């Protein structure tokens, strides 16, 4: 045996022995038996949260799963979720950053990927008090309502086109346009798409940056879990540097546009980019942090809203009773002579319950982002060593028969019978997380999902194509961090209001 091979085998053996000694000191949660080197990586099914829920049925509500040499602990009921997100929140408030996440976030200079500490507390304060305050959300309401009305007009034009009468629409296309235009306008103060649907140069550049970021992030998957094999999968430093420079170049150009406009007008607008630039000195925000925060908004807000509404529409088509009941409420409160506004929400409890029930059954991020232990801690009577990752399976928590009656049934009435908070105070329902790392934009997300659903239901009746049974709609997810429907929803939209109520109401702000 050659000397280099002996040295390599010896180093690996020493590393594994040391790891084994380390972990034998702890009483770890039960789980499937890991393989040497790869852990449970080859046992995990592609839709991870469903796989972990199945394992929880075998091993209990808290399980150990090894991603290579990294321990991941998954909890699947509300009591354990409370321990993780409330009772031991401070010890579990750090983030596990993959190499790509570290690069994208400038090693945690943003909010999403920052470890818990002074920087996180400061940036979180900016988000809570400034960016997502009730006053700013209300000031930005015209943008949200503009984009929702643009979606309604687009669907109306397509479903009444003589060439497409009786044909299904791919619902995701319309929802994605709302999410894209809404988040770029909120974050950057720009609608990259004109009224004819033509995207400008900056819009194409923005889309290319998002697409390239996804590709770069996916290129490292396997090596992330086995640190001592990373030399076989080197980080493409040049590709990440080019991506970062490209992202920063576009963001700085937009920031400069806003600075010049502010100097010319003498006042700041409500968009996040203006807010952050005017607050830069007050909160001592670096340019890296401002850019990181703006892209956090894009990352967190672009997919999740469209995903949630597509799932809700699938359930409403599968459950015509619920669709009809929601429409009856809308007809009673809004009528047939005007369109819905966010100010109507308080008079539409059933619509709000439909949104809640969709987020219960289909949370857009079913495992949330992992929490990383910054100290040894006990959860459910088991040891969680420092450096472990802890995931809350919010998908499993929201389907737990111990706390939900008929958990698999889409029944919005459950939220009329009992008021359940979904912004982090009730640990049975956690679509936005809870504790120190709860999503600061939860109310914005709830408003947009509810508004999109209300308009889709008030303006149209939704059915499957002729010959397709509602129960045949595929309710499985695509693998990934966010839970897209595996099969995009196809449906027939039939207008139900006077034609003059389908015009976009543009808001120039």
UniProtKB/TrEMBL annotation:
Transmembrane region(s): none
Entry-linked InterPro entries: Cyt_P450, Cyt_P450_CS, Cyt_P450_E_grp-I, Cyt_P450_sf
Membrane association type: Single-pass membrane protein
Compartments it resides in: Membrane
GO cellular component: membrane
Keywords: Heme, Iron, Membrane, Metal-binding, Monooxygenase, Oxidoreductase, Transmembrane, Transmembrane helix
Protein name: Cytochrome P450 98A2
Organism: Gossypium raimondii
Taxonomic lineage: Eukaryota, Viridiplantae, Streptophyta, Embryophyta, Tracheophyta
């Amino acid at each position: 045996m050659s000397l280099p091979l002996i040295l390599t085998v010896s180093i690996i053996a020493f590393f594994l022995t040391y790891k084994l000694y380390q972990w034998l000191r702890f009483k770890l949660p039960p789980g499937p038996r890991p393989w040497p080197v790869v852990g449970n990586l080859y046992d995990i099914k592609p839709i991870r949260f469903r796989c972990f829920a199945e394992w929880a049925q075998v091993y209990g509500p808290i399980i150990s799963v090894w991603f290579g040499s990294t321990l991941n602990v998954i909890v699947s009921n509300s009591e354990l979720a409370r321990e993780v997100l409330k009772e031991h929140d401070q010890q579990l408030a750090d983030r596990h950053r993959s190499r790509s996440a570290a690069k994208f976030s400038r090693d945690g200079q943003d909010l999403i990927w920052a470890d818990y500490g002074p920087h996180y507390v400061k940036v979180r304060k900016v988000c809570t008090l400034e960016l997502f305050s009730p006053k700013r959300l209300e000031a930005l309401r015209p943008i949200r309502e503009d984009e929702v009305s643009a979606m309604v007009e687009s669907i109306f034009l397509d479903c009444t086109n003589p060439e497409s009468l009786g044909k299904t629409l791919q619902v995701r296309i319309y929802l994605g346009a709302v999410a894209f235009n809404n988040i770029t306008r909120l974050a950057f103060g720009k609608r990259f798409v004109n009224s004819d649907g033509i995207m400008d140069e900056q819009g194409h550049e923005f889309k290319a940056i998002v697409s390239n970021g996804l590709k770069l992030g996916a290129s490292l998957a396997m090596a992330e879990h086995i640190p001592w094999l990373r030399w076989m999968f080197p980080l493409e430093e040049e590709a990440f540097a080019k991506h970062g420079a490209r992202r920063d170049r576009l963001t700085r150009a937009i920031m400069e546009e806003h600075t010049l406009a502010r100097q010319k007008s003498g006042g700041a607008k409500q968009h996040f980019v203006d807010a952050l630039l005017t607050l830069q000195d007050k909160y001592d925000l670096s340019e890296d942090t401002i850019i990181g925060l703006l892209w956090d908004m894009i990352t967190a807000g672009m997919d999740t809203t469209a995903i949630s509404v597509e799932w809700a529409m699938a359930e409403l088509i599968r459950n015509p009773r619920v669709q009809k009941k929601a429409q009856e409420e809308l007809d009673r409160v809004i009528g047939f002579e005007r369109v819905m506004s966010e100010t109507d929400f308080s008079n539409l409890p059933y619509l709000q319950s439909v949104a809640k029930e969709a987020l219960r059954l289909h949370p857009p991020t079913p495992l949330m982002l992992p929490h990383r232990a910054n100290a040894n801690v006990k959860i459910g009577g088991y040891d969680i060593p420092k450096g472990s990752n802890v995931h809350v399976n919010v998908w499993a928590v929201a389907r737990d028969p111990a706390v939900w009656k008929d958990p698999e049934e889409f029944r919005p009435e459950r939220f009329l019978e009992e008021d359940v908070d979904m912004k982090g105070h009730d640990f049975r329902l956690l679509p936005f997380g809870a504790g120190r790392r709860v999503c600061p934009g939860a109310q914005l997300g709830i408003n947009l999902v509810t508004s999109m659903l209300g308009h889709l239901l008030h303006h149209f009746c939704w059915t499957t194509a002729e010959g397709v049974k509602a129960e045949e709609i595929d309710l499985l997810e695509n693998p990934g961090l966010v839970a897209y429907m595996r099969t995009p929803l196809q449906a027939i939209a039939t207008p139900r209001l006077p034609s003059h109520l389908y015009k976009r109401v543009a808001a120039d702000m």
